[in-house]
Amino acid sequence: MNGIKIVMYDHTYAESLADMWNQSGQNWGGEQVSRTAEDVINENEKMGNICAFLALDGDEVVGYCSFSEYKQDEGASYIPLLNVRTDHIGKKIGKTLVKECVKKAMESKWPRLDLYTWQGNDKAVPVYKKCGFFWERRDGSTHLMNFMPYVMRTEAVKQYFDTFDWYDDSVREIKIESDGRSCILT
Question: What's this model's pTM, rounded to 2 decimal places?
Answer without folding.
Answer: 0.88
